Protein 1
Amino acid sequence: MSKEAIADRIKPLAKVYVAGEQQADAGNAGSSGPRSGEDVYGSFCVNCHGSGVLGAPKKGSEEAWKPRLAQGIDTLLTHAWNGYNAMPPKGTCGDCSKDEIKSAIEFMTKGL
Ligand code: HEC
């Protein structure tokens, strides 16, 4: 059994464990490394950007994202980081780094 297969099997458990760990270890930089855009999206952004709640641009919707992408990734990242109208700061991922938020934006707009 490969490491990946094991990691995959215990994923939901591991996530809960890691979140608790980080709090217990606060200040110890005990992070397990940056999460992928897909992970961040799947844990946080999907709650609004999956269905378009509150007018959130839906993942993969060219119509919704095109005018926003035209502002440039830096502006999108600033808006996602600071909040923008009904878009909450960091998209509710309070412990996300800027890189993680950026990856999540890239995941939502992949191929557009
Ligand atoms: C509580 C709902 C909610 C969650 C959770 C959420 N968003 Fe949003 N998001 C919105 C809404 C609503 C808008 C549209 C805001 C507007 O244009 O007025 C938006 C817009 C955006 C935009 C476009 C900003 C612009 O300049 O046009 C980006 C980028 C974005 N969200 C990224 C994210 C990321 C990344 C996450 C997850 C880490 C996330 N959002 C989570 C509601 C949400």
Note: DSSP finds six helices and no strands in the chain.
Protein 2
Amino acid sequence: MLERIPEKYVALDLSGMRCEGVRCSALTGEVGKSTACGIYEMRPDVCRACMPGDEECLMARAAHGLAVG
Ligand code: SF4
């Protein structure tokens, strides 16, 4: 799956997406205002499976200091 993603967004150990702190390197925009996936068409399966309000979504929101209730 990672082979279709530009190298600059992939972790050096090939374990997944490269992150800067809790932020995925492919995320564009300002968290809490307006964001988008910079590789939406080729995003990993785990991202495709994440749905608004599900457990992973709420974990990500909490990690970024956003409301989860
Ligand atoms: S959808 Fe996945 S690849 Fe895209 S910005 Fe979010 S975590 Fe990164």
Note: The mean pLDDT is 95.
Protein 3
Amino acid sequence: MKLLTFKGGIHPPYKKEYSEKKAIEIAKSPKVVYIPLQQHIGAPAKEIVKVGDLVKVGQKIGEQQGFVSCNVHSSVSGKVIAIKEHELAGGRGTCIVIENDFKEQIHESIKPKGNLEDLSKEEIVSIIKEAGIVGMGGATFPTHVKLSPPPDKKIDTVILNGAECEPYLTADHRLMLENPEDVVYGLKVLMKSLNVSKGYIGIEVNKPDAISAIEKEAQKYDDIEVVGLEVKYPQGAEKQLIYACTKREVPSGGLPMDAGAVVNNVGTAAQIAKTIKTGMPLIERITTVTGSCINEPKNLVTKVGTLVSEIIDQCGGFKEDKIVGKVIMGGPMMGLAQYTIDIPTNKGTSGILCLDDEESKTPKPQNCLRCGKCLTVCPAFLQPLYISAYSLKNDFESAERYRALDCIECGSCSFVCPARRPLLQSVRNAKREIISNRRKESAKK
Ligand code: SF4
Ligand code: SF4
């Protein structure tokens, strides 16, 4: 097997040992779910149910608004008891609150979609769109949009991301090990939807059991190649994965389709397979619950809309001898720290990471030492020290000249900086300001 990688990157402590050997379990169904209308990149869905309505599992309860948006479905059967604002992982937003009747009644619309051979490209994209499927690695970009490239973009490669390079997270690892059939079938669906004859599945070589499970399944097809990836962060980032698999570079400011590739997470592929085979939309996902403060780390299939506090309880709660410092939705590098655990999970909740107070401390930043380490590791070949310095001086024009918008927000620069400079935060802030200024400029025209 070839061992592929990209230029730059870091080797953080992986800490996968908490949960990598834990087989996937189904979480208990919650009494109440809080299903956000915004669980994806793009416009929020619009509710199509009202308080008092009875709903079933898989029933559409939120309709996508515009092309870059997603449908939302009920993860339980029961009664809509409120449609209201609630705390979410990234701020506040509207949720459809459903009281579970525990009857698990499946909605009448949920039916298998037929044989893949009989489905056209257009039908596949329409099924994925209707099912509200998003990038399940955490990015939550609507999958039907990725599968609808403009006619002038020639796509010849589909890549599945099985790197799971974020420390602590093991949901994708367990999925590949326990359900390789759906992962590979999902890739075949994606390849057909894009009329592509070459598929790759990239997996970091610290998961040899997953590689052999996926290889065994992929052997059935001569157009799928399983590639072993060097263990390095951010190996699973789209541009870095495309380079590792194809040696093609996505141009500055460009998208994967500019390199002829579409990248999806292995979890997304498995969900696509499930939707084609059973008709069930995206209403649940595997979430790794992990970290030093959790009594029983697990890989749990959780229904979208379950409160994080309930999931933590199902994992034995917090350890009594630990002081919880941070609860992060996602992994430690790209996840978001939360100030409450009374927030619901969503389609992108790959992990719930609970760190103690020692692990959560943020050291005081010192002056830049001009050591150049941040330049060496940046996988986007940026100069984080300069972008950060301009950002901190509110000189966003200069930050833009230094290609701040090409930052993939991986946090590698902050991780290696011996002066503990807040590089990621300041580069991220520069990106936000540049995009906001561009919007203001185009509104004036
Ligand atoms: S500048 Fe952006 S892409 Fe480069 S290392 Fe820092 S966070 Fe990652
Ligand atoms: S790694 Fe930190 S100290 Fe070194 S050059 Fe970059 S910002 Fe300066």
Note: The radius of gyration is 21 Å.
Protein 4
Amino acid sequence: MPKSENVTVTGRERTFDPDEIIVSKTDLDGKIIYGNRCFYRLADLAEKDCMNVQHNIVRHPDMPRAVFDLLWRTIKGGSEIFAYVMNRSANGDHYWVFAHVTPSRDSSGNVVGYHSNRRVPNREVLNSHIIPLYKQLSTIEQQHTSPKEGLAASTKVIDDLLAEKKTGFNEFMFSLGV
Ligand SMILES: Cc1cc2nc3c(=O)[nH]c(=O)nc-3n(C[C@H](O)[C@H](O)[C@H](O)COP(=O)(O)O)c2cc1C
């Protein structure tokens, strides 16, 4: 069970401005090594609370595990991913973002960590596509007593959706009209 399932949520949404970008960087294990001021403001956390702490410190319990599983498979494979994510502020509020997560490379091309830029999501896409899809995935994950089977079942929903649309995950995200 993810740590964040034991946390409180207020149901209140936080927003940020369209000209703002939420930035964070992690080491290879996903521990935060940098956040910009916008990141800390939305997360309702201080820099000292986050340094060298796992990025799931902002995980919202309603986010399906399949999205993060895909995120990690993608970036560990050396590729970038674009995804809608709902994060949790420390006081239990939530904020939706459209995130780009990608490996960071040194001058020789070695992956030395990961970084993410997030901007304000398209509200229409959230309401019409993402919130219903994520709800479906989370429900499937909760229906299984085995977390492994739950993850496999929700991942299959994503895979089937992409196969039906003959597209990749990033292309699918952009096709929704970000
Ligand atoms: C650069 C980077 C940025 C990330 N940003 C977020 C984020 O904004 N919110 C989030 O919940 N997880 C983010 N993650 C994924 C987390 O590492 C983690 O997989 C996720 O919170 C799920 O946590 P869990 O595996 O403990 O359930 C990010 C990972 C990386 C490498």
Note: The longest strand covers residues 94-105.
